[in-house]
Amino acid sequence: MTTPDHRTRTPGRPAHRRPGQAVLTAVLAVLFLGALGNAPVSHASTPEPPTAAACPPRLATTARCWSGQDDNGAHWTMAVPADWNGSLVVHAHGGPDLGDTSDPDRSTGDLERFAVMVEEGYAWAGSAYRRGGYGTRMAAADTENVRRLFTEYFGRPGRTYLHGQSWGGNVAAKTAETYGTRPGAYDGVLLTNGVLGGGSRGYDHRVDLRVVYQYYCRNHPRPTEPQYPLWKGLRAGSTLTPAGLRARLEECTGLTSDPADRTALQQRNLDDILAVTRIPERSLEAHLRFATFTFRDLVTSRLDGRNPFGNQGVRYTGSHDDKALNAGVERFAPAPTARRDLSWDSDLTGKVTLPVLTLHAIDDPTAFVEHEAAYRATLHGAGRAGNLVQTFTKESEHSGLSDAEYATSLAALDTWARTGRTPTPHTVAASCPAFDATYGTGCFYDPGHHPAPYASRVRPRPGGLGWPAMTAAQERAWSRVDGVGIAP
Prior knowledge:
Elements: H1 22-35, E1 51-53, E2 63-69, E3 75-81, E4 88-92, H2 104-113, H3 115-119, E5 123-127, H4 136-154, E6 160-165, H5 167-179, E7 188-192, H6 199-202, H7 204-217, H8 242-253, H9 264-277, H10 284-302, H11 322-328, H12 336-346, E8 356-361, H13 370-381, E9 388-393, H14 403-419, H15 425-439, H16 472-479
């Protein structure tokens, strides 16, 4: 970590530059002037500048942006505000998106979504990852790579913070564990609405949805279609589209219809599915898509057809007839090597050496707030709970929270890293109104909230109550297995 700097910053304004940023300022001047059409000045120690790109409209007059592609094929986007405070936010995006190639628009879209960080004076760098599909360690490597590229272009930032959103929270947490011990790499981590239960347990509620849905609906697959085990998500050659899946969900539950227009059977099916899986009605379709298309990617494309999921020993409750449900639902056990590879790729050991601040909406319909309980238990099990501060808001969104809260969180993390003074949920919440005076998006913190255990929301598998889901010793042992994990 860098030497603590005890200067403070005004909310809504970028921090003062550190004296050591003179070289960075000179490099930026070269790039800014070049982007404005002036002849660039040659600096022997500076690599060729990246390709200038259009910034999102919100940043068009206040920052300069660049784009490129790294040696692994991952597209990336970088932004530096005109009044740069000398520090960098490295962003890990959510998903995982599907597809075999890197999407050049993904990191640009996330820059627009989190433009508040650049408005707060921070440079920003985000990777679109080298391909779509599952691969947490791959995404972590691409995230670390975009940090290194930024340093090559602009020099070493005064401080560097990781930010992960949704599945990107898992990626950023993995990046912190894997690369965060390297001197000067990262100074802190911000995780927002993160999927922090890891892959081996973080998808169990979608496993449950997949089997419970099929028990009631019998249309995914239909009896007249080729059959396959439900843990595959979808057979490899299927042409089912998200629209087709939506039509089947509507057929069975009337999900998008007015309740008055649903048949009695549709309403009962919907009530049973929601009660048993504990998934909110408004996000049911999204979770079923994950349990279909993402499962197919994970099993077929990443694990060579091996099954990482299981539901043996799980008792489903909450339906109108639990006995019939438990007798009739499809059951399966994971292949040990598939479970190991998924765990090694995505589970967290909790061995993080950096300050970690999390921000999570209590009513997040996608990444349930109970993921935070799993992450706290993970760090506690690793003896690192002192590195974690968790904050919660009364919001009910997953993809985007209040800009004032993002600005507040980043400032709290920066102060923690600079001074060594650990914030509390109450001090973070108390500092938000000053930022909201700039952004006007509201402060919705609930400093007294403590999420229930992960097992209260996602039915645990036998032996699945302890955290970390993967210990540091397991990680070391598995790392010596040839071909372990998910290929990049």
